[in-house]
């Protein structure tokens, strides 16, 4: 199949929160025709200044060629797709391709896939790995599943959104990939929190411990970009504890259905529930560090030294592909 020109389709976008706005900005700065909808209209204002058209209902995007959704959960995905004013509610017109970049359950995704197919709309599941800062730096990774021909059509646009796009198969395969990914996300953050508190209790500065980890074989893009939050104790949310709990529960449900024991993930889920019960769920999930420190009776203080998040500027949101 011949890959289409990156600007040969009219795009719609539903959901312009922190992540959605960062991704729409990348498309607009590459000359893509994008019309957007968000439940809170004020969150579309910055995009309108960049050239996005704004509509007041998801169904108003039904005449677009491709529509991408980034919403909080399964309930919201159903609402914006099949609700009373949802994208597919017109019944006579619909985009040829719907791409969902949210983290929703496999069951809901399959239900919406069947609903879309009845109107001739193909659905790609394309959940992303990374937070809005990673998106702005062009470092997102996307797992994609669904019809292969739809994937080939979408690929030029998906490549504008991040650094790596991986096709993982038909149906809901990408949903399972993302759910597994977010189990790793929580488990790694918890062990980083535990060992950082252990090191600090032993007299080692958090910045020094994390500098060592980031430079070792155990370091990663993730440990690097969470370092400022751990060092400066800045838990401004990029991904909240509530959202992490939701994704862990999706993961535990999938594990139960597939009869796979996940003892470590189950334990971390319990800790995430404690995080929320302690009133830390509205902040970034890096607040697992604060929860661990409280359990150790360790009073944390911000370290004001500048530390890098490791996000390279070379593919940042400057209009470069």
Can you give a write-up of this model?
The protein has 321 residues and is of the alpha/beta class. It has two domains: 161 residues, NAD(P)-binding Rossmann-like Domain (Rossmann fold, 3-Layer(aba) Sandwich), CATH 3.40.50.720; 120 residues, Orthogonal Bundle (N-(1-d-carboxylethyl)-l-norvaline Dehydrogenase, domain 2). It is 46% helix and 11% strand. It is built from twelve helices and nine strands. The two termini are 22 Å apart.
Question: Secondary-structure blueprint of this entry?
Answer:
Layout: E1 11-14, H1 18-28, E2 34-37, H2 45-49, E3 53-54, E4 66-69, H3 74-82, E5 97-100, H4 106-118, E6 122-125, E7 128-129, H5 132-136, E8 141-145, H6 148-161, E9 164-169, H7 173-201, H8 206-215, H9 221-232, H10 241-258, H11 263-277, H12 288-295
Parallel strand pairs: 1-2, 1-4, 2-3, 4-5, 5-6, 8-9
Antiparallel strand pairs: 7-8
């Amino acid at each position: 199949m011949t890959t289409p020109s990156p600007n040969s389709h009219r795009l719609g976008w539903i959901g312009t929160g922190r992540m959605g706005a960062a991704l729409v900005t990348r498309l607009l700065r590459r000359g893509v025709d994008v019309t957007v909808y968000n439940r809170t209209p004020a969150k579309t204002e910055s995009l309108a200044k960049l050239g996005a058209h704004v509509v007041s209902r998801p169904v108003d995007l039904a005449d677009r060629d491709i529509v991408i959704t980034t919403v909080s959960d399964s309930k919201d995905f159903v609402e914006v797709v099949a609700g009373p004013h949802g994208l597919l509610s017109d019944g006579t017109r619909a985009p040829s391709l719907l791409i969902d970049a949210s983290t929703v359950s496999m069951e809901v995704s399959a239900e919406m896939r069947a609903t879309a197919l009845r109107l001739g709309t193909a659905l790609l599941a394309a959940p992303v790995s990374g937070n809005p800062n990673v998106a702005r730096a062009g470092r997102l990774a996307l797992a994609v599943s669904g019809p292969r021909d739809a994937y080939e059509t979408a690929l030029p646009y998906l490549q504008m959104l991040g650094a790596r796009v991986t096709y993982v198969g038909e149906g809901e395969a990408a949903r399972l990939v993302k759910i597994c990914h977010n189990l790793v996300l929580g488990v790694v953050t918890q062990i980083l929190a535990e060992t950082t508190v252990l090191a600090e209790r032993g007299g080692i500065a958090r910045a020094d411990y994390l500098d060592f980890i980031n430079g070792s074989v155990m370091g990663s893009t993730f440990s690097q970009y969470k370092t400022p939050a751990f060092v400066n104790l800045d838990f401004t949310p990029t991904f909240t504890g509530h959202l992490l709990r939701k994704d862990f529960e999706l993961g535990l449900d999938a594990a139960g259905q597939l009869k796979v024991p996940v003892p470590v993930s189950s334990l971390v889920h319990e800790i995430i529930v404690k995080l929320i019960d302690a009133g830390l769920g509205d902040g970034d999930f890096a607040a697992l560090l604060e929860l661990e420190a409280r359990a150790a009776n360790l009073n944390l203080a911000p370290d004001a030294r500048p530390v890098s998040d490791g996000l390279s500027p070379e593919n940042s949101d400057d209009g470069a592909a």
